[in-house]
Amino acid sequence: xxxxxxxxxxxxxxxxxxxxxxxxxxxxxxxxxxxxxxxxxxxxxxxxxxxxxxxxxxxxxxxxxxxxxxxxxxxxxxxxxxxxxxxxxxxxxxxxxxxxxxxxxxxxxxxxxxxxxxxxxxxxx
Length: 125
Known about the structure:
By secondary structure, the protein is mainly alpha-helical.
């Protein structure tokens, strides 16, 4: 039954269109299980496929950002953290990731919050 479920998930991820809420949850759980099983390449592939199918899924963008960061790709990770924040500005994990990949983000955000900024917003950098 597990093999059938995974096969159906793969088929649904390859089909055009957007993911249902159930498919989104399944895709994220599958990617996390691959990461926990120390299979980062497969997890990356699963997340990229999910994002390709549903680019509006901020959680997948954030998760891929952390996976890339862990694998030594901070520039690409930053792009995914920014994508996630553009989709959902209230995503703390994406803010954390962006702060790790781009320390200027933290400085700009602090300046904007204290009123000492020069008109910059946290995402302007």
